[in-house]
Structures are given as structure tokens and as C-alpha cells.
Amino acid sequence: MSTAADIIRAAPTEPCHPWPRHLLAGEQWLAMAAALAAADAPSLLALWADTARVYALLQAADTWLVASTLVQDGRYPALSPQCPAACWFERMIRDLWGHTADGARDLRPWLDHGSWPVTAPLSPRPPSRLSPAAPPEFLPVEGEDHHQIALGPVHGGINEPGHFRLSAIGETVGRLEVRLGWLHKGTLGLMRGKSPRAAARFAARLSGDSTVAHAVAFARAAEAASSTEAPPRAAALRAVMAELERLANHLGDCGAIVEAAAFPFLPARYLWHRETLLRAALAAFGHRLMMDVVVPGGVAADIAPGGAEAILRALAALAEELPDLTRIHEESASLAERLAGTGIVPPALAAAFAAGGFVGRASGRGDDLRRAPGCPPYDTLTFEVPVRSEGDVEARLRIRLAEIAESMRLLLALLPALPKGEVAASLPQTSGEGIGWAEGFRGDIWHWLRLDGGQISAAFMRDPSWLHWPLLEAAMHGTGVGDFELCSRSFNGAVSGVDL
């Protein structure tokens, strides 16, 4: 019996960089879908569409496969019956392009809350909405004595809007259902017809806390589609910004997790160091979040005079206090008891959803796009990818702390050895298709881009949270209602990143 990878590789190819795209006939796509149920099947990383085709990005060991099939009469064979990770993607495809996945597990609206003047806005001729929106539909709850707790979509503070429906018996959660879509911005439609340089601003704003990582992935997709390579100095500066972003976000997350565990001293110190790093980023790159510095072809500007020194001072202050902060965490029995064993994601479930970043690494997955498929300058650097197997809140916090130490070491290696030379290359006005990637602080980010005469004709951006949100739903099963904030902060899923 042919494996899913064999079925994909047997299909004819169309140009796509760096991996050719395989065009599967309808029966081949159906056979691939059936083969995805095998234990050793490739992992589904992303599923998306354009007006005529549906596309899938899969990983088989250390190889990546791109598959596509034509949509017939607005329909295509669903992948979700064999691959639950496809479920949210299939709902998104139906909302945006109007393509229906035959046999899908779930086709309830997700992004479309019924307030758009048209349906399927990315289809060639979006039909007008003829009837008012129906109330959102939630999965039924079986059994007696259940009660439901509805949180959001409006939350206090600056939290992104999302609705969380907790079904519980007493204080024990039987089901969490996540309902998103309130931050849909029409980003994919806004990018069409623009040059990669103009559209880079939209990619950088998909998820503000990952602005560098998404900008790098988008830039690499545009460079792949136009057969362009960023200069070595630009690649090194991108890595500096990416590691700064990772550090700042991990510090913020560490503070948020221990704050949710009612341990107030550590958050203040973690956030102090995060603020110091953001100020160093402002001094070095002109923006606290380094937004719009990464562009297709390289970077918009070189590091400012004194910028490297500002970053090194912030790193020195963090290096001095981090051992004490880690020791306090390790010696606090009450904190360890609160975190350990809470919100567990079993390794098998993390593998089924191809979870990346701290969610995947806390559950036994060691994937890191800086290593494979890799990109400059990481191919010349040595660093560790921490992995644990407990899969709980404690493990996700420990992974962050280990990654903080590794990012500090990478920055100390990168800053004194920045290559000389140009910081940007021009992209030709050409046609092509490309895939770009970056390892963000949440995990693997993937962007796909098709250019027609130098203008974007189709695009898709995949944030790691696509595959993390369903795992949060699973991790809450059997936990206490009071554990929701602690679990959700340990995942820190992006709402904007998946609302497109």
C-alpha cells in the first residue's frame, strides 16, 4: 500500500521554490487523505486555498512536501477525518474561498461571524449575504449536571478577543471550545495585487508580538518566488532581531505564567528585563517591536550606531539576574506544585497536531526551523533545542527558560561577527511561487506566495497557533475551571495570527 508521501511524489510537479509543488488529481488527493491515517504518515503543517485549488504543506521526517488539487464544483475531499489537524483549516477555507471539504469533521463558520456584506470574500465573485447571521453554534454537551461558563470575546486588559466556552461538572472541565474570528482583518485579500515590498507591512502586522518572525517568513517566501537571496549582513541582522523578539516574548510569558500561579515577585523582574530588551531594540532598530525593519530582499536599514552595545548591556543585566530568578522558581515548592501535572499535552497528541515551539518541545518534539530546513546564518551557528516530555505547564515554562539562555548565547555570537556589506537586494519583477519560513517564539511560521509579474496574486500565512489552539482545548479536559488562565497563558496562543 502506497504511503501518503509516495502518492504525493508520484504526481506531476509545478514550479515552486524551494520544493516543487505536486499537482494531485482528485482520486490521488483522496488516496493521500486516506493514507494520512497511518501511524508513520507525514505531518500536516498547513492547508489553504486560492480561487481554483487547495494546497497542503506536509512534513515527512526531514523532507517537506507541497501538494495541491483542483477544486471541482466548489468541493474537494476532506483531510480532517484522517487528520484532525486539518479541521480548522477546512473551516477557514470554506469561509474565505467558499470551497467545501467533502466529508469534513466540522464545517461550522469560524472567521465568518455573519457580519460581512458578502460570503466567501476571496472567491472570484463573492455572493451577497442574503440572510442575517445565525447565532454561533457550539458542540453539544452530553450527560447530566453540566454547566457552562462563557468567557469573552471581550476580556479585561489588552487581551485579544476570543470566546472560550467551558463545559464543566462542578469544577472539573469536560470540554473547552475556542471560538475566534473577531480579529479577521482581510489580510490575504489586502495583499493581492501589491508588490512584496508593499505587502510586507500586512505580514508584519498579522500578529504583533511575532512581527519579526512573520516578516522574515514572508520575505523568504518573496525571495524564493523571485529567485533572490538576501545579503549575508541582512540575514545576520534578521537573526539578531528574531532572537531579540524571542527573548522579549519568552520573558513576558514566564512572567504571565507565574503571575497566574499567584507568585507576584518573579513577574515584576521578568517584565523589567523584557522592557530593557525592548528599549535596546528601539535604540538598535528604531522600533520597540522592530516592526517593518525586515523587508523582502533584506532589511530596511542597518543597525544604528551604538545599537549593538545597547543590546549587549541588556543581555548582561539579564545574565546577571537570570540564575537567581531560575533558582527562586526551582526552590518554590508551592509554585512547582501549581504548575506540574496541569494542562498536559501527551506526546502522541502533540505529534498528531505537528505542534512546534514550546508546546511541541514540552511534549517530546524537537523540531526547529532554524536547524531544518534551516536558513542563514543559523547554518553556521551552534545551539541547543531543549526538549522535555511531561507536556504540562511546568514543562512549557522550563522550555522557555532554556530557550532564553540559548537566545542569549546566539546574540552574543551574532553581534560581534556581523558581516560587512549591503543590507538589501532588489527583487525582480517576475512571476513565481515560493515558500518561506521562520522559527518564531511560538514555533514554526510558514508563508506561501505566488507572484505574477512582480505582483502578489495569492498568499497564505500560517502561524503556529493554528495547531496550538486545539491542543489547549484538549489540555483543559479533566482540569479545574480555575486552571484555565494558567493553561492558556502557558500556551499563549495568538488570536490575530489565525484570524487573518
Q: Could you explain how this protein is built, in words?
A:
This protein is α+β, with helices and mostly antiparallel strands and 500 residues long. It folds into three domains: 4-102, NADH:ubiquinone oxidoreductase Nqo5 subunit (Beta Polymerase, domain 2), CATH 3.30.460; 147-179, no CATH class; 187-499, Cytochrome-c3 Hydrogenase, chain B (Orthogonal Bundle), CATH 1.10.645. The chain has 17 helices and 15 strands. It has helices at 4-10, 26-35, 87-97, 187-191, 196-204, 211-225, 232-260, 265-285, 307-331, 333-339, 347-352, 357-361, 370-374, 393-414, 465-475, 484-491, 496-499; strands at residues 13-14, 21-24, 43-49, 53-60, 63-70, 75-77, 100-102, 147-151, 163-169, 172-179, 294-295, 298-299, 432-439, 444-452, 455-462. The strands form five sheets. The protein has a five-stranded mixed sheet. Helix 1 (4-10) runs antiparallel to helix 2, helix 7 (232-260) packs antiparallel against helix 14 and helix 9 (307-331) runs antiparallel to helix 14. It starts with a helix and ends with a helix.
